[in-house]
Amino acid sequence: MKIRLLVACREERRAEAHRDALARVAADRIATTAARLDEIILLSAQQRPDVVLLEHVAGDEEHLWSILHRIARVSPASRMLLLCDLCTDRLVTSLVANGACGSVAAASDALLWAKAVLAVHRGECWFARSAVLQALRRQLAAHHHPPSASSQEERLLTTREREILSLIGAGMSNKEIGRVLSISDQTVKTHLHHIYVKLNRSGRYKAFVATPPPIASASRSAGAHAPPS
Predict the structure, then answer these.
(1) Are residues 91 and 129 in the same domain?
(2) Least crowded by CB within 10 Å, which of 22, 44, 173, 218?
(3) What sections of the chain are H helices per DSSP?
(4) Of 136, 168, 201, which residue sits at a domain end?
């Protein structure tokens, strides 16, 4: 079954151009509908798309955050991806906080857009590693002490779960985490499900920001990783 993608831009002509570009590279996997930003809430409610690709308009972020939250209300299962000219660490922080699963550069080709759509549909995040790390560093620097979980959360998470969250914070994929910890990808996914249920959070980086500081053994085990960008 094809992924149902709804792509929305301020100008309908641009959205249609993006739709056509995606059709040329991924028509067999992605069925794309084009729309204007001012139509996106109604269409999301009607179509319940798997993924929504929204154009980021610099200087109009408050309106964009409102759109993200309204889409989440009318189509809770839709995963949201932003098409940005430049995704700074501040923008990454705001995107995660407002429910987006990733961002992709507007200047990149449609093949990369398709890869991002497929990734977020699988439940992954799609942010440039450098921007994510800078965003995390900025959040940590805003506090005199690293953020820690409540004592209740500390009791809820097992040592393995804390270890996995530490590796997520290092930007590692499920497959890489499995290799580091000598467990299967499916076991990693099972642990992640338990973590998200316990913390009542969603999204890999949201979970990381809400958790205790990485435990030492996991930090030493984490290797270099180049996430999608």
Answers:
(1) yes
(2) 173
(3) 12-26, 40-47, 61-74, 89-97, 110-121, 129-141, 151-156, 159-169, 174-181, 185-199, 204-209, 216-221
(4) 136
Q: Determine the Cα–Cα distance for residues 46 and 74; give it in Å rounded to an integer.
A: 9
Give pLDDT, residue 220. 36
Domain count, the chain: 2
pLDDT tens for each residue of 93-104? 888 888 899 999
- The pair of structure tokens assigned to 144 is 């005199």
Residue 184 lies in domain: 144-221
d(CA 95, CA 88): 10
Q: Could you give the angle at the alpha carbon of 129 between the alpha carbons of 191 and 214, nearest 5°? A: 45
The one-character DSSP state at 98 is T
pLDDT digits (tens, 9 = 90+) for 180-190: 889 998 898 88
